[in-house]
Amino acid sequence: MQRIYDPQDLLEAEMLRNMLASEGIEAHLTGGHLLGAIGEVPVHGLLGLLVENHQAEQARQLIAAYNAAQPLPGEEPESWPGVLLC
Predict the structure, then answer these.
(1) Is position 23 within any domain?
(2) Count of structural domains within the chain
(3) Which residues form the DUF2007 domain (predicted)?
């Protein structure tokens, strides 16, 4: 298995894990059980997404595309220009 991404928080980790699952890639979350220890352990690098070696490159590409997503023209509210609302 390879660690392919370090999510910022548990919400991002679960969103990405579900997105990868929808593409047929099973991702495992590491460090999620340590979130209760924040304050006692360093936060940076605590969470990680892992996938099988043969799916690592595809998973990285999917996450990169997800992170680079931009709103479609006409779908963003005028009060939030340039912000992707889910």
Answers:
(1) yes
(2) 1
(3) 1-65
CATH code of residue 6: 3.30.70
Q: Cβ–Cβ contacts within 10 Å for residue 12, how many?
A: 15
Q: Which residues pair with 48 in a beta bridge?
A: 30
C-alpha 53/C-alpha 81 separation (Å) is 39
Tell me what percent of the chain is helix, strand and coil, each rounded to the nearest 5. 40, 15, 45
Looking at the chain, the whole-number percentage of residues with pLDDT higher than 90 is: 51
pLDDT tens digits, 36-70:
545 444 455 678 999 999 999 999 999 999 999 87
